[in-house]
């Protein structure tokens, strides 16, 4: 899918944190390490505009010049994640409010509400001024908008600005209060509105708000991010042809990344494998203990595959392919997870090579030198605070050397398409029905099962029209499926697995008649659904179990999987399968292996921790296990990266 013709490394740098006398030496050492890119500027607003309207560009001019003269290419970040203190004097109501109605105050970062019109104009203004100044600078070769939308849970805001904007959004979407009342079912509990002005945000209600109201608010909040990002992209494009990038995060479902990406030239993300294992992983403690210094063997790959697709969303010339970067890569211990171990030697290198194997053009480490002050003083850099090399530096240098020796080739096309849909994530967060029903987690388990079977995956949006490039298509948990979507899925000539919890709701989160899944030709209905407490799995005849979720299917479709007590667990007609529950790890691996084999794909049963990804010329192996792993009579050492030429 992606065909990068270069692979490069970079680093995040904060010239404003260091005496100017150090910059030239820093730049020379970056170049010496083999780095190509340096990202700067994204938190520097208070140093660029110390008081409203008075600018001190001179230091940034000199920083760009110094870095550029060392041969580095600059990624210029817009500083809108850190509005300076004076901004609050101008707009005291620009802060986001949390669900309890409390302001999220100044004193860290991301203290703005996406719906605040005047702040959005400030963002447009500063992005435009930066682009005017640096848009044609020969050293500035890329842009980053803001920094990590939704970092610190900042997309959802219950401010007055959000309330007013939400009313407008609903008026536009539903046209009349009656229609909104009807689609949401507001007759229930007398929740009807006679005017959009009366509509409030779905927080601080006595018990749960209407899930349709929550879903609408989530869609609205996502649109606010798209709009905020778009004004910056437009402001930059008026003065620069350099590619525009945003740095997404891991496991974020607060906004639609495909939609934001429609305004970006390159999608990037910030990869912190050990932080994410500790902070954002539902795996059992034993698994976390095993991968404590390596990270989850599938988490990084999942996001590479998701954001590679995001990088293809902007309208591009025919045949242009998705562009993926890693804007921040963990270089050593971080500071923000509950525990922050150091990586196993070799992992800083392995993570970079895995990103390249999945189509990344560039991997930038975060950050050049560890800061001796403030919130992130415990976060490693490639250099220590005393300016001695930290362990990550040698590994980055090794990757740079290997890149120079390695031909840059594209990622081999994946034959499995896994649908990942932000709308479905919002819906199941609004109405989980089971304490552990999490859409991201469900999709991720499908992804992991593919990887354990040695299958490469593309993660794709639900509005994909043509699945004919895929031999196996997986559609867990999709909120809604109309006849056009069913038709599109049928363009896959191999097996299609839909479910669990798919195609059973209207787009406004109510139950349609006839009830779902209602797939053309499948003649099956989920008569009722149940969520299952952890100690109550439903065992399957062929091994493993359904857990968390199970649907009682009615109909006469062919039964492919059965529970031990003879209930249908998976049914099919001519390649279209419906899965009636959330399979445990073993059952899911088996079910996907069978469907893949039926689709003509080759399965490779991989030991825990060993993974591979094919490029056009090589199979690249990655060992995440903390010990030597044997596979096909070959041994892989911990943190091994092994290239096998493909014949
Ligand atoms: C990222 C963020 C960086 C820095 C880093 C620390 O989430 O973009 O600014 O805070 O985490 O790991």
What does this entry look like structurally?
Among the domains are: 416-598, Class I glutamine amidotransferase (GATase) domain (Rossmann fold), CATH 3.40.50.880; 610-645, no CATH class. Strand 20 and strand 21 form a beta hairpin. Helix 16 (439-452) crosses helix 18 (585-598). It has 647 residues and is an alpha/beta fold. Helix content is 31%, strand content 18%. It binds beta-D-galactopyranose. Residues 147-148, 151, 270, 272, 328, 334, 336, 366, 376, 379 line the site of beta-D-galactopyranose (GAL).
Summarize it:
This protein is α/β, with parallel strands linked by helices and 647 residues long. 31% of the residues lie in helices and 18% in strands. An 8-stranded parallel beta barrel has the order 1-2-3-4-5-6-7-8, surrounded by 5 helices. The chain has a 7-stranded mixed sheet with strand order 10-9-11-12-18-17-16.
């Amino acid at each position: 899918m992606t065909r990068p013709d270069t692979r490069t490394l970079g680093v995040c740098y904060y010239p404003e944190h260091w005496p100017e006398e150090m910059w030239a030496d820093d730049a020379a050492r970056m170049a010496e390490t083999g780095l190509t890119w340096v990202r700067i500027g994204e938190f520097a607003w208070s140093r660029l505009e110390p008081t409203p309207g008075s600018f001190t560009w001179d230091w940034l001019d000199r920083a760009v010049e110094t870095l550029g003269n060392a041969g580095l290419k600059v990624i210029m970040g817009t500083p809108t994640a850190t509005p300076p203190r004076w901004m609050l004097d101008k707009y005291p109501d620009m802060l986001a409010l949390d669900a309890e109605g409390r302001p999220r105050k100044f004193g860290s970062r991301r203290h703005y509400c996406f719906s605040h019109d005047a702040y959005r104009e400030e963002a447009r203004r500063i992005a435009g001024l930066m682009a005017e100044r640096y848009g044609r600078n020969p050293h500035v070769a890329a842009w980053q908008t803001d920094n990590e939308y939704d970092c610190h849970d900042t997309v959802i805001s219950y401010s007055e600005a959000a309330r007013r904007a939400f009313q407008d959004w609903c008026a536009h979407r539903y046209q009349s209060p009656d229609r909104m009342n009807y689609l949401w079912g507001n007759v229930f509990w007398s929740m009807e509105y006679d005017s959009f002005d009366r509509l409030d945000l779905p927080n601080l209600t006595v018990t749960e708000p209407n899930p349709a109201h929550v879903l609408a608010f989530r869609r609205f909040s996502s649109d606010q991010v798209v709009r905020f990002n778009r004004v910056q992209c437009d402001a930059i494009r008026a003065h620069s042809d350099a590619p525009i990038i945003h740095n997404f995060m891991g496991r974020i479902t607060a906004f639609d990344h495909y939609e934001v990406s429609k305004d970006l030239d390159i999608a990037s993300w910030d990869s912190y494998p050990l932080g994410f294992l500790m902070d954002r992983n539902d795996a059992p403690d034993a698994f976390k203990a095993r991968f404590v210094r390596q990270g989850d063997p599938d988490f990084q790959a999942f996001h590479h595959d998701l954001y590679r697709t995001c990088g293809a969303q902007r309208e591009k010339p025919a045949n242009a392919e998705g562009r993926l970067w890693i804007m921040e890569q963990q270089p050593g211990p971080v500071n923000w997870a509950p525990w922050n171990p150091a990586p196993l030697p070799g992992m800083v290198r392995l993570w970079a090579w895995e990103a390249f194997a999945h189509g990344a053009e560039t991997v930038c480490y975060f950050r050049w030198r560890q800061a001796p002050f403030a919130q992130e003083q415990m976060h490693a850099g490639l250099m220590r605070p005393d300016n001695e090399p930290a362990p990550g530096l040698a590994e980055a240098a090794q990757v740079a050397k290997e890149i120079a020796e390695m031909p840059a080739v594209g990622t081999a096309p994946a034959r499995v398409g896994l649908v990942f849909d932000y709308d479905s994530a919002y819906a199941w967060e609004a109405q989980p029905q089971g304490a552990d029903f999490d859409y991201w987690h469900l999709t991720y388990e499908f992804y992991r099962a593919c990887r354990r079977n040695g299958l490469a995956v593309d993660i794709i949006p639900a509005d994909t029209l043509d699945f004919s490039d895929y031999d196996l298509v997986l559609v867990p948990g999709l909120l809604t499926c109309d006849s056009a979507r069913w038709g599109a899925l049928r363009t896959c000539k191999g097996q299609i697995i839909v479910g669990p919890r798919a195609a059973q709701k209207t787009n406004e989160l109510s139950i349609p008649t006839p009830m779902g899944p209602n797939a053309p030709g499948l003649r099956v209905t989920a008569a009722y659904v149940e969520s299952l407490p952890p100690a109550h799995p439903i065992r399957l005849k062929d091994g493993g179990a359904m857990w968390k979720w199970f649907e009682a299917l009615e109909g006469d479709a062919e039964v492919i999987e059965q529970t031990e007590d003879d209930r249908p667990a998976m049914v099919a007609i001519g390649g279209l399968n419906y899965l009636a529950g959330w399979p445990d790890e073993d059952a899911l691996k088996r079910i996907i292996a069978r469907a893949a084999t039926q689709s003509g794909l080759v399965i490779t049963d991989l030991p825990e921790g060993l993974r591979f990804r094919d490029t056009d010329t090589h199979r690249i192996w990655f060992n995440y296990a903390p010990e030597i792993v044997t596979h096909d009579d070959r041994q892989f050492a911990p943190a091994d990266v092994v290239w096998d030429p493909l014949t």
